[in-house]
């Protein structure tokens, strides 16, 4: 398999790529569809054509709405499509096809059909210099609508969660953050574990404060936790699956630490952070007001690098939020 | 056709009476299209349907008792009361669902057609839609996909001259069939009030699809005798010229066909259909309602812990 991946892929992309190879080999009903997937323009689908042929790797015209519902139709009659979207914002074009069609069929038909489609969002979040229409992280929208939504933060999760997504009987969206896909220093461990949906991962244990971090911000959180290690013991939780969310694991942590900070790449208003904090306020034992670190309300990422970076959070803001939550 | 007519007339009464909640989009007047097209299909072929879908569903062979049971929101309905009029689906019969979003079925049907072809079967997909759907981008994208991949799908445009109140000439630039030809589809236009010409032309196009000659497009000129939705009927609101309606009613496909049969044969069909509909009404009225605590059943295929809206 590896000799087919002649291009040297960054670790995170390579993990996604391995997962697709593995699922296609395991199940003939899996096929990949999207724009430039045969050449593997994003890297995620590299090497699939020589292995599985053009009948199972379909290049589409630039028709997101029709190929998204095409996936629904194919899934309804027995196939497992993996649809790759080149840009996260393209999800806005196909909200109707995902949220209003694919997601609703199971309930509306009284369980007569399932729609096992995977939406592979190759590259969400800022790409530094790609500006307004290529820098969003719209996973909160899909979670709000009830689409199973994953944001893996490590190559082993990217591998294991994508495999679970493809096997899942319902529509599942997998957001691969650009920052991670492009990171040259992230290595793929070559692990083969399948990661089940809905299980959070505790990446660092601590008794004083819980940080929930999503996607590329898991790295931010680990870095900050380390830098504050002499002052405070931070527990870092990566939900991995944004929806359904592992509330139990979070509750266990927050009930232990009593303090909570959330960092993610959503816009603030109605973003994922809002849901996590609301739930914690309703259900968990908090000692102090929780804090969230997010993009501003309704943010549109500007082009100039300094402006882009101003809106996308990092270690500094998280450190401040942690200090505030410790007051 | 008579079965659809009688079914729809009964539904219209039940909708106006409030027994069918949400109302219906009556298909009355357009029966020759569904019946003509579906007379060429087997149980293995697929259809996608529209908000005005009862005719297509029945013509594909669905049990009227279970369709009515669905409209009454009961567990005996195809969708166990979760879908209603605009989502009626019988997957075993290849009915991939009526659809409440105009133009949505075309791309879904195209995906199913790809699978049928990929399996090496000669099964085909029929996607029904109205003239209004011809302005939906996703449908035009689906024509393109179906054509470049040479998929066995017949797109059937039921041009009943109106999209709710919008006249076709105000909504559709150019001509539906010529548009489809622009995508490389073989396209025909037929008199949608004449079941035999619909059946024979659809038959030819479906045969082409079965022989792997690519997708096709059939425009049927037709007319709905009632208003867009039963609510309008209920309110007595009409958008169309009564003379226009009267002139189309003279071309009623069921009356025309009836003239070719003996009085005795017509009486026999009428009797038979009435019995079936009475039976469907009885069946549906006696069917069990779903349990409110199961309101989100079937949302996901497996166990997903959906949190309630209120956590106390
Ligand atoms: C995309 C979309 N826009 C608007 C509506 C509201 N709507 C429902 S039916 C209809 C008219 C559809 O006209 P046509 O496609 O010609 O079908 P007909 O009702 O004539 O059978 C409209 C506007 C909708 N359901 N979907």
From TrEMBL, chain A:
* The entry's keywords: Oxidoreductase, Pyruvate, Thiamine pyrophosphate
Q: Where are the transmembrane segments?
A: none
Q: Which cofactor does it need?
A: thiamine diphosphate
Iron-sulfur found in the keyword field: no
Per the record, the coiled-coil ranges are none
The keyword Glycosyltransferase is annotated on this UniProt entry: no
Tell me which residues make up the Transketolase-like pyrimidine-binding domain.
Answer: 10-184
Going by the entry's taxonomy, the superkingdom of the source organism is recorded as: Bacteria
| Any one Gene Ontology molecular-function term assigned to this protein's record | oxidoreductase activity
Query: Which Gene3D superfamilies does its entry note?
Result: 3.40.50.920, 3.40.50.970
Q: What's this protein's name?
A: Pyruvate dehydrogenase E1 component beta subunit
Q: Which organism is it from?
A: Amycolatopsis cihanbeyliensis
């Amino acid at each position: 398999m590896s000799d087919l991946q002649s291009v040297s892929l960054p670790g995170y992309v390579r993990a996604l790529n391995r997962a697709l190879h593995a699922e296609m080999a395991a199940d003939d009903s899996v096929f990949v569809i999207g724009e430039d997937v045969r050449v593997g323009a994003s890297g995620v689908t590299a090497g699939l054509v020589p292995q599985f042929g053009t009948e199972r790797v379909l290049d589409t015209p630039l028709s997101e709405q029709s190929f998204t519902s095409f996936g629904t139709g194919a899934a309804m009659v027995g196939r497992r499509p993996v649809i790759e979207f080149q840009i996260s914002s393209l999800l806005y074009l196909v909200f109707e096809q995902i949220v209003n069609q694919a997601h609703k069929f199971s309930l509306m038909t009284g369980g007569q059909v399932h729609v096992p489609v995977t939406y592979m969002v190759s590259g969400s979040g800022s790409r530094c210099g790609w500006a307004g229409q290529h820098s969003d992280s719209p996973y909160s929208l899909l979670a709000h609508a009830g689409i199973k939504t994953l944001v893996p933060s490590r190559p082993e999760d990217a591998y294991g969660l994508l495999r679970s997504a493809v096997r899942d009987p319902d529509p599942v969206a997998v957001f691969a953050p650009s920052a991670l896909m492009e990171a040259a220093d992230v290595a793929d461990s070559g692990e083969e574990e399948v990661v089940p949906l809905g299980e959070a991962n505790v990446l660092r244990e601590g008794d004083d404060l819980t940080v929930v971090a999503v996607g590329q911000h898991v790295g931010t959180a680990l870095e900050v936790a380390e830098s504050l290690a002499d002052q405070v013991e931070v527990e870092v939780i990566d939900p991995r699956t944004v929806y359904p969310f592992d509330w139990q694991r979070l509750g266990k942590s927050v009930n232990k630490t009593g303090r909570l900070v959330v960092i993610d790449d959503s816009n603030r208003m109605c973003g994922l952070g809002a849901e996590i904090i609301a739930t914690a306020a309703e259900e968990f034992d908090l000692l102090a007001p929780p804090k969230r670190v997010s993009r501003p309300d309704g943010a549109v990422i500007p082009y100039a690098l300094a402006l882009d970076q101003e809106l996308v959070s990092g270690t500094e803001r998280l450190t401040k939020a942690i200090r505030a939550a410790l007051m | 056709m008579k079965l659809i007519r009688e079914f729809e007339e009964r539904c219209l009464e039940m909708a106006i009476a409030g027994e069918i909640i949400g109302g219906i989009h009556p298909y009355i007047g357009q029966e020759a299209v569904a019946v003509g097209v579906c007379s060429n299909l087997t149980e293995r072929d697929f259809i996608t349907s529209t908000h005005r879908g009862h005719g297509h569903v029945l013509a594909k062979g669905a049990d009227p008792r279970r369709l009515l049971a669905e409209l009454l929101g009961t567990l005996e309905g195809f969708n166990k009361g979760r879908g209603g009029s605009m989502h009626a689906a019988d997957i075993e019969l290849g009915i991939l669902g009526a659809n409440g979003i105009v133009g949505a079925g075309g791309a879904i049907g195209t995906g199913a057609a790809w699978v049928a072809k990929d399996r090496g079967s000669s099964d085909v997909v029929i996607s029904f839609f109205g003239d209004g759907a011809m302005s939906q981008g996703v449908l035009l994208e689906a024509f393109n996909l179906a054509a470049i991949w040479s998929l066995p799908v017949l797109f059937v445009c039921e041009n009943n001259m109106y999209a709710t109140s919008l006249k076709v000439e105000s909504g559709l630039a150019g001509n539906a069939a010529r548009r489809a030809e622009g995508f490389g589809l073989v396209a025909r236009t037929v008199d949608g009030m004449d079941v035999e010409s619909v059946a024979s032309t659809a038959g030819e196009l479906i045969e082409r699809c079965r022989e792997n000659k690519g997708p096709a497009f059939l425009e049927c000129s037709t007319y709905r005798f009632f208003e867009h939705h039963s609510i309008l009927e209920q309110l007595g609101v009409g958008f169309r010229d009564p003379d226009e309606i009267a002139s189309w009613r003279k071309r009623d496909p069921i009356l025309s066909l009836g003239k070719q049969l003996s009085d005795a044969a017509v009486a026999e069909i009428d009797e038979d259909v009435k019995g079936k509909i009475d039976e469907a009404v009885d069946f549906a009225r006696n069917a069990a309602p779903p349990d409110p605590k199961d309101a989100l059943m079937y949302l996901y295929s497996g166990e997903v812990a959906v949190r309630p809206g209120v956590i106390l």
